[in-house]
Amino acid sequence: MKILVTGGAGYIGSHAVEILKNSGHDVTVLDDCSTGHVDSLPPTVRFVQGSLLDSDMVSRALKGCEAVMHFAGKSLVGESVEKPDLYRKVNVDGTKVLLEQMNVLGIKKIVFSSSAATYGEPESSPISETAQCAPTNPYGETKLAIERELASAALTQQMAAVSLRYFNVAGALQTDRGWLAERHDPETHLIPNALRATSDSPLRIFGRDWDTEDGTCVRDYVHIIDLIDAHMRALQYLTPSEHHVFNIGSGTGYSVAQVVASVSRVKGSTLPTVDAPRRAGDPAVLVANIDKAEMLLNWRPVRNLNQMVEDTFKAS
Length: 316
Ligand code: UFG
What we know:
Blueprint (H helix, E strand, L loop, with lengths): L1 E5 L4 H12 L3 E6 L14 E4 L5 H8 L4 E4 L6 H6 L1 H22 L3 E7 L22 H19 L3 E7 L1 E3 L2 E3 L2 E3 L9 H6 L7 E4 L11 E2 L1 E3 H14 L5 E6 L5 E2 H12 L5 E4 L8 E2 L4 H6 L8 H11 L1
Parallel strand pairs: 1-2, 1-4, 2-3, 4-5, 5-6, 6-13, 7-12, 10-15, 11-16
Antiparallel strand pairs: 8-9, 11-14
The structure holds uridine-5'-diphosphate-4-deoxy-4-fluoro-alpha-D-galactose.
């Protein structure tokens, strides 16, 4: 299939590109390179450098495509609090341009990378897709707003849409060109930060007084290869005029202390850490109920936390 991958030069998008290519798909990437890295891409993909807000560029990238995997967007929770307008513009307005141009060209298939940030502070755990969505930051609000645009496009332009609500994505893929690494700047995520911690710059543990078993926050980590497998299955699941939402996590929670223990094991030495205050906006526990994806997408994550840590380590 001819597929446009928006944000294909980013961490998650570049893994999707690699796996789509290896599965025989014909891939075009649209990326403005604001955070992505073109050298992550295999040389055989068609690359269009441009913004989602540039309708001519979006139209050019979409030419000949039958489906879109939509990863492009701003994705830092903290930054979204400081620059909510930027997040609305790039994420929501950018997606509107994409949907308009898809409509013009008669392209009716889209898989969107949404987020558990759409839920906000969960009322119960694990969270299922029917839980109330009350995002606690502009990033989560934009993801929810995009899901609504997709639901509307399903009704008005017969769009077949799936939104995948990611929990905590980690790990990496080895390609014939080397490892595809997570190269965020700044890096805010726990596993890469833990792997680069030193005694001079220890990992800061954001709160040890949470209402959890060991006092540190609990999250649901999913390996990026399992995540992209969910996208491949979502592509097959797309149904005209319908928008479906799926949680994509592992269904298992790990505390920050458990992640630290896993990183120490992989590195073969005790990880230097320092206790720090709670980080604003962090919920205590975020764990996915993944029954819906298991049942309807026939998807099941197979890689565990240790493998995510090991692969991130090898890629770094
Ligand atoms: N943490 C630390 N120290 C660090 C980094 C993180 O203690 O240096 C803790 C955080 O407080 C949190 C956990 O590790 O408890 C995981 O934090 P991450 O920053 O790795 O991930 P988040 O759970 O904050 O964010 C993820 C996605 C976001 C998404 C969010 C949904 O990366 O895109 O889940 O709530 F919005």
